[in-house]
């Protein structure tokens, strides 16, 4: 029996991470490595994750504005794995 290692964890904490994963899925569809119907579903989910990252970033920016920190050079905190899980 051949042991198959679990797939590597994909880092999807930034829009750029999501973009790179979408491009990878596109290349897999184009090469026939994965079915177009499966790739389309994956890209849809990646798009939804991208939207959530955008909403998270906007929410944090609004919080900073409301707190009066508009002149601050403070950067937004990166997403944590459990940010989407509640």
Task: Compose a concise summary of this entry.
The chain has two helices and no strands. It is mainly alpha-helical.
Describe this structure in words.
The chain is mainly α. It has a domain at 15-69. The protein is built from two helices and no strands. It has helices at 15-31, 36-66. The longest helix is centred in the middle third of the chain and has 31 residues, at 36-66. It starts with 14 loop residues before the first helix and ends in a 20-residue tail after the last helix.
Distance between the termini: 39 Å
Strand-residue fraction?
A: under 5%
What is the residue-mean pLDDT, rounded to a whole number?
A: 85
Largest sheet: number of strands, sense, barrel closure: none
Integer-rounded radius of gyration: 17 Å
The coarse silhouette is elongated
Amount of helix: 55-70%
H/I helix tally: 2
Stretches where pLDDT falls below 50 for ≥5 residues?
none
Category from helices, strands and their pairing: mainly alpha
Q: List SSEs in N-to-C order.
A: HH
Strands, count: 0
Topology at a glance:
Layout: H1 15-31, H2 36-66
List keywords for this structure.
mainly alpha, single chain, about 0% strand, about 90 residues
């Amino acid at each position: 029996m051949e042991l198959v290692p679990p797939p590597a964890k994909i880092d999807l904490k930034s829009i750029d991470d999501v973009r790179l994963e979408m491009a990878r899925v596109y290349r897999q569809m184009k090469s026939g490595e994965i079915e177009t119907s499966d790739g389309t579903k994956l890209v849809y989910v990646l798009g939804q994750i991208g939207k959530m990252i955008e909403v998270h970033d906007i929410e944090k920016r609004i919080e900073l504005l409301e707190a009066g920190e508009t002149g601050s050079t403070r950067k937004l905190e990166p997403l944590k794995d459990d940010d989407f899980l509640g």
